[in-house]
Write a structure and sequence with these properties.
Elements (H helix, E strand, L loop, with lengths): L1 E7 L2 E8 L3 H5 L4 E2 L20 E11 L3 E4 L2 E7 L6 E13 L5 E4 L1 E5 L7 E5 L3 H8 L2 H12 L3
Parallel strand pairs: 2-4
Antiparallel strand pairs: 1-2, 3-8, 4-7, 5-8, 6-7, 9-10
Length: 153
């Protein structure tokens, strides 16, 4: 697996999905970050202190057959014109948090939007797609029950 970091005008960019063995690695695995206990600075440029909180604008560039999932709202995706083509996922986290709470997961995920029209997407690896589809069929009902119980609706 090859991970490179590029610094442009003070922002960090990580590229995932290059190299000969990447496709065979990703058939059964995912790449994820571990930012706890001052490790966030190991994978993205930041002030890695629990007392320093700030909002984040995050961009992750991956191979077109992969999905990058992170904190915040997914604003948009950009498909590059490079050879091989890549996809950039752009997230915005408006709530100030310390860097240790930023996470990233990259893998060949299947994405299923929620069937009840709420702004939730469900993701899993291809081998567990039928299990996910069965699980999310009652997700909205369970979530509504918790909202009623907690008087949060």
């Amino acid at each position: 697996m090859h991970v490179s970091e590029e610094h442009k005008t003070g922002s960090g960019r990580l590229y995932f999905g290059e190299g000969r063995n990447w496709r065979s690695f990703c058939q059964h695995n995912v790449l994820h970050s571990n930012s706890q206990i001052r490790r966030a600075h190991c994978w993205f440029p930041c002030i890695d202190s629990a007392t320093q909180r700030c909002p984040f604008d995050l961009e992750f560039t991956v191979s077109t057959d992969l999905v990058a999932v992170s904190n915040g709202d997914l604003l948009y995706q950009v498909l590059s014109k490079e050879d091989p083509p890549r996809k950039t996922y752009v997230y915005k986290l408006s709530t100030p948090v310390s860097a240790q709470w930023i996470s990233l997961v990259v893998g060949p995920f299947e994405v299923l939007p929620d069937k009840n029209g709420i702004s939730v997407s469900h993701m899993c690896l291809s081998s567990t797609l039928s299990k996910l589809d069965n699980t999310i069929s009652f997700f909205h009902d369970a979530y509504s029950c918790y909202e009623d119980y907690l008087a949060a609706s």
